[in-house]
Amino acid sequence: MKNLTKNDRLASAQTVKVQSLAVPAAPISRAALDRSVQRTIRFLRAAQTSSRIMAQLAAGGFTIDQPKEGWQLVFIASGVVVSSQTGDNPVAGAITEISAVTGNYFKRTRAVLHHLHRDVEAFLFQDLTSGTGPAAVPALNTFLERCQALENSPERKATRKGDHAALASMEARGITAAERTRLQGLVDIVQSQIAQPASIGNEDARTLALTNLYEWITDWSETAQALVTSRADRISLGIAKRRSRKDDAAPVPTPQPSPVTITPIAAPPEPPVVNPPLLNAAPTVEGNPTKAA
């Protein structure tokens, strides 16, 4: 065996010490991976709709290419095949518009149906929420399919008159048949690019896609924490939380009672004793007392 010099032994010990300090990264929970989709969508929408936020993030390297990368990671994690062609991506544009209008349309439709056609409201919105980003696509598709059922589904023949009245009320609010057709076209664009089950159904592939997305949003969230100064902007990016009313209110200190010192009251001094004058006493002249008669 080769004899080790003192320097060799010191270097070897130092290497062992460094290796012993290396702690493997904790695994990312599945819940955290799944939340990364909504975190990224919120971050990107806030950043891309605010020139102030974009200007501050640009100082950290967040330029026009980073939002494109973020959206691509969202689409891949959501099972959408992203075209590698340069230029505008029709799928990305369709998802962005669907995400922007779905919540608004759902609120307007639900309001008028709740007012005038509550039975149709129950049918149209059963177990249905708008969602954002890629999650808005299946929600809007379900909504449009149910609107079509109101038009001519054989299963709803008995309620056709009321269904058509509800559609007329929606038309009056701007949710027209032509607009529903346009939205269906956007849904078709996205669905034509949905990944096949074999590619996204692989759990390992999905976990890898979510992990890449998680690392991306964690990286840029930390950068935004250092660069974005406005608390309101941080909240819109999803990297800060709103204060509750209880937190905003300044705590009112409870007044503490002052210690009370009881000083005993001294008894008043006794008045001097004054002897009353003797009755029938003759006045006395100094040096010559007068005897009483």
How would you describe what is shown here?
The chain has helices at 6-21, 30-48, 51-58, 65-77, 90-116, 118-124, 136-152, 160-172, 177-191, 197-200, 203-227, 231-237, 245-248. It has 293 residues and is an all-alpha fold. The longest helix is centred in the middle third of the chain and has 27 residues, at 90-116.
Number of strands: 0
Identify the quaternary structure here.
single chain
| Helicity, as a percent range | 55-70%
Secondary-structure content class = mainly alpha
Beta-strand content estimate: under 5%
Give the rounded overall mean pLDDT: 79
Spatial gap, N to C terminus: 150 Å
Q: Largest sheet at a glance?
A: none
Shape: elongated
Instruction: Please give the radius of gyration in angstroms.
Output: 42 Å
Order of helices and strands: HHHHHHHHHHHHH
Low-confidence stretches: 9-24, 195-200
- Count helical runs: 13
Produce the secondary structure layout.
Elements: H1 6-21, H2 30-48, H3 51-58, H4 65-77, H5 90-116, H6 118-124, H7 136-152, H8 160-172, H9 177-191, H10 197-200, H11 203-227, H12 231-237, H13 245-248
Helix pairs in contact: 2-4, 2-11, 4-11, 5-6, 5-7, 5-9, 7-8, 7-9
Summarize the structure.
This protein is an all-alpha fold and 293 residues long.
Features:
single chain; 293 residues; mainly alpha; 13 helices; elongated
